[in-house]
């Protein structure tokens, strides 16, 4: 692994940890030349998968698009980039387990919602409103009512 600070080719692994979903390995490294520390992630690289969009157009799967769409939903909510990367890794791991050459954008969107909801409910609702193309506040209100089982107010 090349050091991102001094471009030296020799680095040593200080610590390796499996992500919570076992979708990637996080490695803490140290450059043997400049002693700077940095983190790398090792993940499964999925073979080319085509995504079938809502309009039936096809495009190649893009991790960057997933990260960007999640990040857009998380703006101003101080969600660490590492969490967003983990969500993307979990989605990729799930896609690799499917073993399909084509998946739908709806599948990806549903997985983003599944993993985003426990992280931040407002980011979840922001993503949901774009994903489901809500046109009115009533659409969003109905979805909130479906998501919330019980509300209790204390005085």
Q: Detail the poorly predicted runs.
A: 149-155
Could you state the order of secondary-structure elements as H and E? EEEEEHHEHHH
Largest sheet: 3 strands, antiparallel
Number of helices: 5
How many beta-strand elements? 6
Q: What is the CA-atom radius of gyration, in angstroms?
A: 19 Å
- Average pLDDT confidence is 88
Roughly how much helix do the residues carry, as a percent range? Answer: 40-55%
| SS strand fraction | 15-25%
Strand order of the largest sheet: 1-2-3
Shape descriptor: globular
Rounded to the nearest angstrom, the distance between the terminal CA atoms is: 58 Å
Domains (count)? 2
- Given helix and strand content, the structural type is alpha+beta
Describe the structure.
By secondary structure, the protein is of the alpha+beta class. It has two domains: 1-43; 45-132, no CATH class. It is built from five helices and six strands; from the N terminus they run βββββααβααα. It has helices at 63-73, 81-98, 105-116, 121-131, 137-147; strands at 11-18, 24-31, 37-43, 50-52, 58-60, 102-104. The protein is globular. The model is unreliable at 149-155 (pLDDT under 50).
């Amino acid at each position: 692994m090349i050091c991102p600070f001094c471009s030296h080719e020799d680095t040593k692994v200080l610590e390796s940890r499996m992500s919570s979903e076992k979708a990637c390995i996080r490695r803490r490294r140290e450059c043997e030349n400049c002693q700077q520390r940095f983190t790398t992630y090792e993940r499964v690289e999925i073979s080319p998968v085509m995504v079938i969009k809502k309009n039936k157009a096809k495009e190649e799967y893009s991790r960057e698009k997933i990260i960007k769409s999640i990040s857009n939903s998380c703006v101003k909510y101080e969600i660490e980039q590492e969490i967003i990367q983990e969500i993307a890794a979990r989605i990729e791991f799930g896609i690799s387990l499917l073993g399909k050459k084509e998946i739908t954008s709806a599948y990806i969107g549903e997985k983003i919602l599944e993993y985003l909801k426990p992280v931040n409910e407002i980011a979840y609702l922001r993503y949901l409103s774009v994903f489901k193309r809500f046109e009115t506040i009533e659409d969003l209100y109905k979805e909130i009512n479906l998501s919330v089982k019980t509300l209790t107010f204390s005085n």
